[in-house]
């Protein structure tokens, strides 16, 4: 077991050479844009929320739970390059931004979710809702990475430049202290943005050369669209646009494509989300 929740992975020759030829994550971005049929998921949520009117499970909760399961079953998605070396995390982490109010001048807060093997849609949903409510109690930063960023921003420019260069050097060697990495979405498995919550379509979002995040996913607005079904007939369905930016050094396109197929399977069979993420979905690729 490696240091600080990661272990080094022996990369194939091609990946090793790519790590040296293309050391920056932004040099290795692969962009994927697709639609996911959410018709069955909407029916499932309607039934679920009708049974529990005091608590509402959302599409975003389901998407986060589906991503957690996807990474659990597709572990290469939990890898990253740092300092020319390929690593794999020992836990799954998902991050997203929460706006304290839906207003132009409202502050944003960074949130990180670390699902466990025993977690299901219900437990993940409640963790998200609980954390969001706690965050929105205040108009101002509530601590953690937000508070640290506020302190950095208050430094004189020349001091901040020097500090950031030191931090980036530590990051390259993977020795940044926990106080700098804990709660930072740049150090999570998947950084996601729920653009559908602000009525915005899924967009391209770049990766960052700082940190260890190798996957960025944006979720667009739910809308109706005519689709061609497997038997050839056309049908108007509920669909969600999804955009993903990935570091091509962690896996090949075939692996990414199969991972997306698993996401689509989960949305088409949402009862899978009721299983603990440590239990295999049974999906046959």
Characterization of this structure:
The protein is of the alpha+beta class. It has a single domain, classed as Chloramphenicol acetyltransferase-like domain (Chloramphenicol Acetyltransferase). It is built from eight helices and nine strands. It has helices spanning 13-21, 39-51, 59-73, 121-136, 144-153, 157-172, 178-181, 253-268; strands spanning 6-8, 29-37, 79-82, 85-89, 94-99, 108-113, 190-194, 215-228, 234-247. A six-stranded mixed beta sheet has the order 2-9-8-7-5-6, with helices on one face. A three-stranded antiparallel beta sheet has the order 1-4-3, with no helix packed on it. A hairpin with an 8-residue loop joins strand 5 and strand 6. Helix 3 crosses helix 8.
Could you write a compact summary of the structure shown?
The chain is of the alpha+beta class.
Keywords:
Chloramphenicol Acetyltransferase, 23% strand, 9 strands, 285 residues, 3-stranded antiparallel sheet, globular, 6-stranded mixed sheet, single chain, alpha+beta
